[in-house]
Specification:
It is a single chain. This protein has 804 residues and is of the alpha/beta class. Among the domains are: 232 residues, Rossmann fold (3-Layer(aba) Sandwich), CATH 3.40.50.300; 154 residues, no CATH class; 99 residues, no CATH class; 60 residues, no CATH class. 46% of the residues lie in helices and 9% in strands. It has 34 helices and 19 strands. The strands form 4 sheets. An 8-stranded mixed β-sheet has the order 6-5-9-4-10-11-3-12, sandwiched between helices. The protein has a 7-stranded mixed β-sheet with strand order 14-13-19-18-15-17-16, sandwiched between helices. The chain has a two-stranded antiparallel sheet with strand order 1-2. Helix 4 runs parallel beside helix 7. It is globular. The protein starts with 9 loop residues before the first helix and ends with a helix.
């Protein structure tokens, strides 16, 4: 993690200009509109009306039903005994233009069925009756899916087919119990890609609460606690719809990610990185008010960075906050500014850190009365009493308020796998009844842990207790309306909450029976999970993996050692790398001489434009080109590259279709081979699709690795624990190494938060190499360095005492 409080370099400036993808723009648009209406919903899936780009009249609805949907129902009825479907009478004549459009697009519809929502409904409808015909209870999966899908806000959905399906589902409801549905909850919810794929886009509940709270007129300190990967860092974009926002974070890449998103939707952004005073602040072109125009291009040339009244979001590092604050106050009323401090717990797990003094100064000198402290692991309100009292005393003239937003949004499961390959759960952690009660109490307080409760294991306990009538209180039964009042309420979050409810209400006798029987029946998720370059690689599916360790070199060496690459191949590759290193070193010397020679020429720009150089420089340029042609291509047989077809075949897993592998081009390999001052082993690892993020100063290597990680081209990233905060790369699996056993509980949760950040329902896992850290995660920890340090640093000192 880069905590260097320095100015932005050229690559970083260029990086923020690259627009985010269309999917991300939809989310950003939702956030901006959501500030004004927190209940706003989008659904961009296409109905037949929208696919045909025609008007939505009843005549068209009827025409589509009769000509495109009824024929599908007719085919289904030939196969299965489905209820009669109604015909329609076209009482209203369709416009001629619409009729022509319908006829012209008939073939197009048949070729694009997978893009049209009504056909997805019919697919589940057909599958449901296929299962019913075969007396398979798995028809419930499609029954549930249809109940959910028809309630999504797809525009202009055909009302005839929707009403027919609602009637059918109502008829079938008498054959369904809630226990039946929950028993199939793993396949029905977690392994059901259509629930997320076709779902409405809407704000998270914590974003709704944040926007509502921030609209209140009084000064406010908001403690904003929500799971990683649920949009906290993008929330300032919504707040900027009304307020000026100063976004502060110790990790520069978090601020730059926000800047990139904000600029993609034309928000006006300024930057305070490595600033000693306000003169060091720089405006993005969108924010510039006074500037000169480049005569040749007509674009902005020089910007007057002192005029910032258009700035909506100021993005600052820790060092630059005070200059950024005064800059924004020069153009805006102080009560119309929000200080949004992201991940304030960064470095708080250290007893001392160079940034601590800067944090202390920023809090003491802060004049902004509206503050949001945002983190998945922020201490709770009762743990921050001194800070809250300090805030109220400092801003007593603004009628200050304290608000806590604690979220447990849970749309996916990221199970914890212990060192023996079992899924770990609260009800497996200890045989002692008193321990179980403490674990449940801890989870109830820190609801972000709900994300790591395995849905299938929770369902096993729920079904076992209900089927064996181990629930003494009728209101705790699964069929009681209070627990699951509707089909829609049977979702991942509510099932997990019900799981905790049963544990909380369980008596000791019942607990002993449940623990012993379920523990005995528990099956391994995987036989082993540490050999990431050989026999266990196939378990790393769908996307990249992150391996967190303090000793990254040890893990890197282990990856090479266990890859079982024959010694003669390693020798040949090593020899080629060494020879290339020698050539690259000579090229670097020549290039330095060329640069020096050009720099001495006062007419450098003109000569370069005309391609005119003195003979000696030309000779050196030619020599560089000749030497580059001598560089040997370095490649590794695919048999040793994890999860390629040859590799899977080698270890007997050729049937695995979603095993994730790297996508490293020859150009990427060549770039890494040109870097001299990195270990040769790292170059070998790259050919296996493995990158190393460690505390080293090789900027070219890190830039290439970041690019490959962002594009999801690496199979595995090995990183130290300081790289966890705000890393927005998309990981599907994560390893927590043995040597991180001393990691604090909060930092462990941050580490786990690197996995499962995308919006797809993949298979995820967090794999611990030391079970003690799992136990530590689920138990109340008296040693909380983050709490102690925040209490020490987030409190105002007297100006005289501070200046000393």
């Amino acid at each position: 993690m880069d905590l260097n409080q320095r100015k932005l370099n050229k690559d970083e400036w260029n990086g923020i200009e690259i627009p985010v993808n269309e999917r991300e723009k939809i989310v950003l648009d939702l956030i901006t509109k959501g500030f004004h209406d927190v209940n706003v919903k989008y659904n961009n899936n296409l109905s037949l009306v929208d696919y045909l780009k025609t008007s939505n009249t009843q005549a068209i609805q009827d025409y589509i039903y009769e000509n495109h949907l009824m024929p599908k129902l007719k085919k289904i009825k030939k196969k299965y005994s489905i209820p009669d479907y109604p015909s329609v009478t076209n009482s209203t004549k369709m416009k001629k233009a619409d009729a022509i459009r319908m006829e012209n697009n008939a073939n197009s519809i048949s070729q694009n069925i997978d893009k049209i929502f009504e056909f997805k409904l019919l697919e589940h409808f057909s599958d449901m009756y296929s299962r019913i015909t075969k007396n398979s209870k798995k028809w419930l999966i499609h029954y549930y899916t249809l109940n959910i899908l028809i309630n999504y806000n797809v525009k202009n959905l055909n009302n005839n087919i929707v009403q027919y399906m609602k009637n059918v589902l109502e008829t079938l409801s008498s054959r369904v119990t809630k226990l039946d549905l929950i028993e199939y909850g793993y396949e029905m919810i977690e392994k059901n890609p259509d629930l997320l794929k076709y779902s409405d886009e809407e704000l998270y509940e914590h974003q709704k609460e944040l926007f509502t709270v921030c609209k209140r007129p009084n000064a406010k300190l908001v403690l904003y606690i929500a799971p990683t990967g649920t949009g906290k860092t993008m929330s300032p974009i919504g707040l900027s719809e009304r307020y000026k926002v100063i976004f502060v974070c110790a990790a520069r890449h978090i601020g730059l990610a926000l800047a990139k998103s904000a600029i993609s939707i034309n928000k006006k952004v300024a930057f305070a990185f490595g600033c000693n005073d306000a003169e060091d602040i720089r405006l993005h072109y969108f924010s510039a008010k006074d500037y000169t125009v480049n005569r040749k291009t007509g674009g902005i040339w020089k910007v007057d960075n002192t005029v910032g009244d258009k700035v909506e979001i100021m993005i600052s590092d820790i060092k630059s906050y005070i200059p950024a604050m005064y800059y924004m106050m020069a153009f805006n009323p102080v009560d119309n500014i929000i200080l949004y401090w992201d991940e304030p717990t960064i470095t708080m797990d250290y007893d001392s850190h160079p940034i601590h003094d800067i944090i202390k100064r920023n809090w003491s000198k802060n004049l902004i009365p509206n503050i949001v402290l945002s983190s998945a692991t922020l201490p709770h309100q009762e743990e921050m009493r001194d800070t809250l009292i300090d805030f109220k005393n400092k801003f007593m003239n603004y009628n200050p308020e304290i608000h806590s937003i604690v979220s447990h949004d849970c749309k996916k499961t990221i199970p914890i796998i212990n060192k023996d390959g079992y899924v770990e759960m609260p009800h497996y952690l200890s045989e002692k009844y008193e321990d179980m009660k403490k674990i449940v109490k801890h989870c109830d307080k820190y609801k972000t842990l709900m994300r790591y409760i395995d849905l299938s294991e929770a369902i096993k306990l729920i079904v076992y207790m209900n089927k064996n009538r181990l629930i003494t209180n009728e209101s705790d039964s699964i069929e009681h309306m209070r627990n699951f009042p509707s089909i829609e309420s049977i979702n991942m979050k509510n099932i997990k909450m019900y799981y905790f409810k049963l544990l909380k209400r369980m008596d000791e006798e019942t607990w002993n029976r449940v623990y012993n029987e379920l523990k005995q029946k528990r099956e391994k998720k995987m036989e082993s999970n540490i050999y990431v370059t050989t026999q266990d690689a196939y378990t790393l599916t769908d996307g990249p993996t992150i391996f967190l360790a303090n000793d990254t070199s040890k893990i890197a060496s282990f990856c090479i050692q266990t890859a079982k690459i024959p010694s003669d191949i390693i020798t040949q590759i090593s020899n080629n790398i060494r020879e290339n290193n020698v050539i690259n070193s000579r090229i670097a010397d020549l290039e330095k001489s060329i640069e020096d020679g050009i720099a001495k020429d006062s007419e450098n720009d003109k000569k370069m434009a005309e391609g005119r150089f003195n003979p000696e420089i030309k000779r050196m340029m030619k020599k560089v080109e000749e030497m580059r042609l001598v560089i040997k291509r370095v490649a590794l047989n695919e048999m040793f590259v994890p999860n390629t077809r040859l590799h899977l075949n080698r270890y007997g897993h050729q049937e695995v279709m979603n095993a994730f592998t790297c996508d490293i081009s020859d150009q990427d390999v060549e770039k890494i081979m040109r870097i001299n001052d990195i270990e040769d082993s790292w170059k070998l690892l790259l050919m296996m699709g493995i990158g190393v993020f460690a505390n080293q100063e090789n900027a070219p290597y890190m830039e290439i690795m970041k690019k490959l990680a962002q594009e999801q081209k690496l199979y595995l990233i090995i990183a130290s624990s300081d790289y966890i905060y705000g890393t927005n790369y998309q990981f599907c699996h994560g390893y927590i190494s043995k040597d991180l056993g001393c990691m604090s509980q909060e930092k462990c949760i941050q580490a786990m938060g690197r996995v499962g950040r995308n919006n797809l329902q993949y298979t995820y896992s967090i794999r611990f190499r030391d079970d003690e850290l799992i136990y530590k995660l689920f138990k109340e920890d008296d040693v909380k360095p983050e709490v102690a340090n925040m209490a020490r640093l987030f409190i105002t000192e007297d100006e005289d005492e501070y200046n000393e």
